[in-house]
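cron nightly-structures :: item 1 of 1
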Amino acid sequence: MPKSLTRLVYRSRSLVAPDDTTAVKAIFEVSRRNNKRDRITGCLAQPDGHFTQVVEGPGVAIDALMARVAADPRHDNIVILGRWPAPGRLFESWVMALPDHTPLKEQSFRIINETGTGAQVVSALLELTKRPESLYGIL
């Protein structure tokens, strides 16, 4: 485990149409490849026109990832919901999980999409990854 494990949560407005499955799949595949290379794990959700993501890994890799996100024309209005040192990985089995958010209750959906703090978003997305039937992504 890296000495400087960092967890970061952000939300951005997606400039990718939610029904553009080809674009979402491309984002997911590139993210998986890059995350594996950079020893980053996490979870990406794309609810209602937003990207919400939890990432965890070495601090310098998280910084490089966020620089790529900031330069990516598919994102707008990026907001960091939280960044903190992490004693261990919560998404250790997931280079990038991509959950189906449709089974969420309205309150959990709002937490992920609109109102949640970093810790609340982590909790909601972590819960989704515990239900294999709700995942699009694979290890």
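cron nightly-structures :: done
The longest helix spans residues 21-38.
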